[in-house]
Amino acid sequence: MTASNNYRRVGIMGGTFDPIHFGHLVTAEAARWEFALEKVVFVPSGRPPHKKDYRVSDPEHRYQMTVLATASNPYFEVSRSEIDREGYSYTVDTVHEFRRFYGPEVQLFFITGADAILEILTWKDVDRLLKECHFIAATRPGFQLNRLGESRPMLPVEGRHRIHLIEVPALAISSTDIRWRVQNKKPIKYLLPEAVEDYIHRQGLYRPRDCGVYEKS
Ligand code: ATP
Ligand code: MG
């Protein structure tokens, strides 16, 4: 880690959060601890272009669930920046917005699952992105870290040290699975915070009539 310890450090955790679950929360907390981040800001997405295969829940529902899930952690915040922005949101736009807001003195750390980072690193503006922020990629079950190793030679040399890996406890939790469980009347207890579970049931989210058929991936 070449980052100087004198810099303030802020984590950004982007996601669809449909719904947010303990995989996201454990990852954010692990990153906060390991990289001495002063806080982690959760940024629920607008309507992401790569999730066209199912109807993403209303952004306000996803925002509310994220607020409920993070309320008990004083180091967690939720941003409306992508939800309130017109059109699709890309990580690069969000990082620029954070950079403008915090100024040059703050080091930004974008936290993702290791699967998501492979996608991000194939973008054409990855060089610029790596100048703006660090990446913390969390391993998740079934993901082979060596795939990230293989893609490393394609990365700009000066940016490689800005990609960090952390291991989180093996949480085989995914939002897709939770949606599938609700639709099939299976329990979701202990996969996500109780307040989020209550919200899902109260609002009737992920029921067949609301959302079409979810495929279990
Ligand atoms: P979906 O199943 O709809 O794709 P998801 O569970 O992957 O949802 P996202 O909102 O897409 O959740 O993920 C937001 C970020 O959190 C991504 O960077 C993703 O890689 C990461 N992530 C998701 N689930 C886990 C998990 N169980 N452990 C670690 N990271 C995770
Ligand atoms: Mg995902």
TrEMBL record:
Keyword annotations of the record: ATP-binding, NAD, Nucleotide-binding, Nucleotidyltransferase, Pyridine nucleotide biosynthesis, Transferase
Full protein name: Probable nicotinate-nucleotide adenylyltransferase
Pathways involved: Cofactor biosynthesis; NAD(+) biosynthesis; deamido-NAD(+) from nicotinate D-ribonucleotide: step 1/1
Gene Ontology BP, a term: NAD+ biosynthetic process
Signal peptide location: none
Known function: Catalyzes the reversible adenylation of nicotinate mononucleotide (NaMN) to nicotinic acid adenine dinucleotide (NaAD).
Domain Cytidyltransferase-like span(s) in chain numbering: 12-179
